[in-house]
Structure formats: structure tokens, C-alpha cells
Specification:
The structure is a homodimer. Chain A is an alpha/beta fold. Chain A is built from 11 helices and 18 strands. In chain A, the strands form 4 sheets. Chain A has a 7-stranded mixed sheet. In chain A, strands 7-8-9-14-15-16-17 form a 7-stranded mixed sheet, with helices on one face. In chain A, β14, α8 and β15 form a beta-alpha-beta unit. The first copy, chain A, is globular and about 70 Å long.
């Protein structure tokens, strides 16, 4: 099953007529995840023709307005659209108080449950798991408690080589699960058939790492190592490195260094400061270090493809 | 000094790609007032080329999301733009708790003061006054505590008729203020000169009444009587009168009846339910009762003109 990322907004701080604050829609293993939710996200979701009812898990990186001020309105719209299914909200400690205060004062009655997973620890932790995939936090270094998120498909079962298998009538259907898990097959005369002759390598599980907002920090490299797609903020160019450090942000050069060191498949930049009108300057700074760097295009899905690490 | 109303959004409940929730910008007596602030208002203000620094007074009708969820983001942007001047926020009791909870949890430090005027009483009260104008609440009947707002220029001074005045050297410049206030002038021989011969009638003060959201209620008629412009919600057509009552809204027919009974100059409808794709049906229902009824056009300023009541 393929995966794709639709960037809904990639602006920093102040929304403009041309661009929206941070929000992304990730489709992976048949699930739809919303990552961050700046003001106006629900309208961008409509533009992306996303089905609101498919969004059951929302991951908020941090409680700055340009990453979460669209959440009350989106949840109020869920209610108006008759939602009944529970909604899972992952985000920093305080997100529950903020949302529940708003819902109490605006008398937003919800016919569905919101299940909060509030985050407060400074090391990577697994916060979501289903049959096919897992989500881990990526502790970041911003002015306020902030996490990126790593979405990773689980290793898939090996694929059966039916041509080979059919040569051995001793192998029955009930043995297939063992073969998919990599076990050899032992014939009655104790002659072992190697698993690698009976199965093919599995389709690789793909992975996506979302990192916004943060200072340059190499501590994330072990977590994002060899991901197929990395989104990393690059609010500034490197000539404003001091400002980046002061405000808790990264430069395009630094994002490229992280992508290179972590040996990722592809890098998408974002969270650009409004001071830059031509965003190609970010590519010009990053590509000499990490050539497979791209700018996001709002509402254009990016296919997440398996990347065979060097 | 003229007055104009720019409707930034007039959608009800769920924002769509084509229309924004309620927000209006009123320019009157040289001041700029923001009325309601649904999600996305700050982007609409940019589209309207409004100067953020001129907005010092924000009036929120009620704490439903489609009337206030744009406020945290707008105020956060004020801060990012370096605002220092105080901001006055008028709205239902609870608005302070909502905004201050959000600002605390999002660590939004403000270098300017927010002065809250929280409203809770059920009769019309004057909540703003300066040299030229006043603002009064209009108690409405919604599912949650809700006020409309009446903006009214104060009666202006009479205008001097300099041709007549110059015939009497006894009238000195220091007498002009008395004349502007309507006093007669008494010559030395006790011969009174009537004020009406020395001055012209003053330019009329203009008035605007904003009424959203509310059930049909004739109790507002004495407050909105003879206003030059009335904005009144009409979420539904009259065939859905029962739903209008149930949800706390008004029909186009009822809005027209109120405009007629209050003898206003012009009626602008709004807050239309998303179920109506062609909004002309609202005009077709309202105009037979009150011909001077119009639909708003987002971002197109409406000149508020003095209306000489019948």
C-alpha cells in the first residue's frame, strides 16, 4: 500500500493571502493522519478534497498558534458534520486544557470522544501502533516543548514463491504463515528447505519524519536515520544563523546537513520566514549538500517512495 | 466624515473554500472597528488591505467558533507585527478566560495590553464612547449569550452660515461655538437673531446596527429604529422557520419585517446556511417586504449613507 504526504500549509508565523501555516495530511497504510493544524487548515483540507471522516488521529508538534490555532474550528466542524467516532489528539501537555476550555466556553457539545495523548518527556517514545505501522516522537529543540513525529510501516511478511512451493506437496497452506515469517521448512527426511528458496524479500515498509519547529540538533539523526522522506523546517537561510538559533529555528544548510548525515531518501523543506519572496534560494543553499531536496507545493501530494540507503 | 462597512465573511458555521465565517470591518468617524472574528479573518483583513495597526477595538457578538475562532491568531499576529498600543476586546463573559488560557498555554507573550470589556447583562448598554460616536449592545436571542452592536455617530454641531454672520460685526469668533450648539445671538439692542438664520442644519450622524446570531425578536426594534444600515442574519428561508427557531436563527422574511418595522435605511442579509447555493433566494423572500435589501459581497465596502426616515 503506497503512502503520500499532502502539505496543506508551510508558512511560518503569520498567515498570508498566498500561504497557510503548518499542516500536513499523511496517508500511510490505509490511514489518514493530520500533522499540525494552523489556522485555516480545515479550508485547506476541503481544497485537498480530504474526507474529514477519515481523520481519526491528529498529531500536534507544539502549542504555537501557527501549528494549532486551526484545531478548535476543525473539531467544531467535525461535530457539525455529525461525527460519532472517537478522535485521537497527540500533542504537548496543555493541549487538553486549551481545547477543553475553548469547548466549554463556546458550548461546543461533542457527540464523539476526544482521546488525548499528552506528551511531556524529552526522549523518543512510541505513541501509536496498529497492525501495519508505528508512530514515534522526535524530541526537538524549540522555544517551547516541541516534538516531531516519525511514521514508520512495520516490517512486512516475506512474499511466497508459489512456483517453488508447488514443487513440494509436503508444504501445506497452514505452513504459509511460518514461511512468511522467514522460517525454513523441514521435509520428512529431515532435509531442510531454506526459506530464501521458498519466499521473496518483503516489500519494504516506508517511513516519514516530520521535524518542525527546531534549532539544528544532531540528536535527531539516530531517530530519522534512513527515512524515505524527511520534512525539516528551514525558516531561514544560513546567513541568518544567529537569528535561527535565537528564535529556535534551522537554516536550509543545516536541514541539508541533517538529511545527508541521516542518509534519508528525500528532503522537503518548509516553514519559511515571510521575508523570503523567492523560495528557490532555499534549494540553492541546500542542494549542494543534499541534492535530493525539494520545496513543498501546497495541496500537491508527494508520493513517499522506498529509498534504498547507500 | 463618511462611514463604510466591509463584510469579510458572512458564512454560517462551517468555513468553505468559497466563503468565510462572520467578520466585518466598520470604518466610522475615522476609527476602524472589527466586528466578530471567525477563523481566517486575519487573511481576509489582508485581502481587504486593512491596516492591522488601525484596529484598536474588537467587538465579538458571542462565543460560537464561527464568530471568534480567528481571534487568537489575529492577536498573535498583532504581537508578531510589533504592536504596542492597547487592544480593547468587547464580548461575552468568558472571552477573557478563553483568550488568556490560550495565550498562557501557547506562551504568547504580549508587549501590549488587552483591555477586556466582558458583557453579561440582558439590556442594551453603552459600552464605548468617544468625541464623535457611541456603541451600544443589542441584546439578542440565540442559543448562547449573544449581543449585536449599534454604532452611532453623535449629533454633530450646526454649520455656520458665514454670509449671514458677516453682516453683524457684533458676532465675534468666540461666539461661534454657541451658534454651533443652536443658541440665538442677542444684539446689544436686545434684538435677538434667530440661530436658524445664522447656521445651517448639521450633517447628520450616521448609524449601523449589527445583529447576528438571533431568533426573530421584535425587542430589538426600539434599539435599531431608523438606523442607516442594518445587517441582520437570515440563516434560513421562511419555509424552515421551525429549524430557525430551534437553532436560534432568523429567516429572510423575518429580517425584512424587522427592517421595515424599524424603518431602517438599508438591510444587508448574511450568515446563510450552507444548504443554499444560490443566495438570490434570500433577496426574493425579503424584498417584497423591504425592497432596500441587499446581499453582502465579501471585501466590497458598503458606503453607509444617511437615511432620511419616512
Amino acid at each position: 500500500m503506497g503512502a503520500s504526504l499532502t502539505v496543506l500549509g508551510f508558512n511560518s508565523a503569520i498567515p498570508t493571502v498566498r500561504s497557510y501555516p503548518t499542516a500536513q495530511l499523511l496517508e500511510m497504510s490505509g490511514r489518514t493522519f493530520l500533522i499540525d493544524c494552523g489556522e485555516g487548515t480545515q479550508v485547506q483540507l476541503r481544497r485537498a478534497k480530504a474526507k474529514f471522516s477519515k481523520i481519526n488521529h491528529i498529531f500536534i508538534s507544539h502549542l504555537h498558534g501557527d501549528h494549532c490555532f486551526g484545531l478548535p474550528g476543525l473539531i467544531a466542524s467535525f461535530r457539525l458534520l455529525g461525527r460519532e467516532k472517537p478522535l485521537y489528539v497527540y500533542g504537548p501537555k496543555g493541549i487538553r486544557e486549551m481545547l477543553e476550555t475553548i469547548f466549554r466556553l463556546t458550548e461546543t457539545r461533542k457527540e464523539f470522544e476526544i482521546i488525548y495523548k499528552e506528551l511531556s518527556i524529552e526522549v523518543s517514545e512510541k505513541i501509536y501502533e496498529d497492525k501495519n505501522m508505528e508512530v514515534f516522537t522526535i524530541p526537538l529543540d524549540h522555544r517551547i516543548y516541541c516534538n516531531g513525529y516519525l511514521f514508520r510501516e512495520k516490517p512486512k511478511p516475506r512474499r511466497l514463491n508459489m512456483v517453488e512451493i508447488s514443487k513440494y506437496p509436503e508444504i501445506e497452506i497452514c505452513d504459509y504463515e511460518h514461511l512468511k515469517r522467514g522460517k525454513d521448512f523441514v521435509l520428512k527426511d529431515d532435509y531442510p528447505l531454506k526459506n530464501s528458496t521458498l519466499t521473496f524479500d518483503p516489500s519494504p515498509g516506508i517511513s516519514y519524519a516530520f521535524c518542525s519547529d527546531t534549532r539544528f540538533t544532531t540528536s535527531i539523526i539516530p531517530i530519522i536515520k534512513q527515512v524515505d522522506l524527511l520534512y525539516h523546517e528551514s525558516t531561514f537561510l544560513h546567513d541568518l544563523k544567529e537569528m535561527a538559533d535565537f528564535t529556535g529555528h534551522t537554516t536550509a544548510k543545516e536541514a541539508a546537513i541533517l538529511a545527508k548525515e541521516a542518509n534519508v531518501g528525500k528532503l522537503v523543506l518548509g516553514h519559511f520566514s515571510n521575508r523570503y519572496s523567492d523560495l528557490n534560494v532555499f534549494l540553492e543553499e541546500a542542494r549542494p549538500i543534499f541534492p535530493n531536496t525539494y520545496l513543498p507545493r501546497a495541496l500537491e501530494p508527494i508520493l513517499i517512495e522506498f529509498h534504498r540507503p547507500d
